[in-house]
């Protein structure tokens, strides 16, 4: 990456540095904004997935308790 930037710099005259640096800064800021936006979107998706996972875990726990209760009832009925 430094070699690429260095090759650009070697092609510029001192008068061209400022506009070139300004353009690079704008591009970098745009990239940071896009990354920040993408990161926020991914965090929202992760939060939603974790919330859904919590609900599924709770449902699985309830079903497991129900299964144990049914097995216990079945065992009691067989012994009678």
Describe this structure in words.
With 80 residues, this protein is an all-alpha fold. It has a domain of 48 residues. The chain has 2 helices and no strands. The protein is rod-shaped and about 100 Å long. The mean pLDDT is 88.
- Give the proportion of residues in helices: over 70%
Count of strand segments: 0
Number of helices: 2
Order of helices and strands: HH
What is the radius of gyration computed over CA atoms, rounded to a whole number of angstroms? 30 Å
Strand content: under 5%
- The coarse overall form would be rod-shaped
What does the average pLDDT come to? 88
Coiled coil: 39-80
Protein name: MAD1L1 isoform 13
GO biological process, one term: mitotic spindle assembly checkpoint signaling
Keywords: Coiled coil
Task: Spell out the key features of this protein.
Mad1, coiled coil, mainly alpha, 80 residues, single chain
Layout of helices and strands:
Layout: H1 2-11, H2 14-79
Write a brief structural summary.
About 95% of the residues lie in helices and about 0% in strands.
């Amino acid at each position: 990456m430094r070699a690429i930037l260095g090759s650009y710099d070697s092609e510029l005259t001192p008068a061209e540095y400022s506009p070139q640096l300004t353009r690079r800064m704008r591009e970098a800021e745009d990239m940071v904004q896009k990354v920040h936006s993408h990161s926020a979107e991914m965090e929202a998706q992760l939060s939603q997935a974790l919330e859904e996972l919590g609900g599924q875990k709770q449902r699985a726990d309830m079903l497991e308790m129900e299964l144990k209760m049914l097995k216990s009832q079945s065992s009691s009925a067989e012994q009678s």
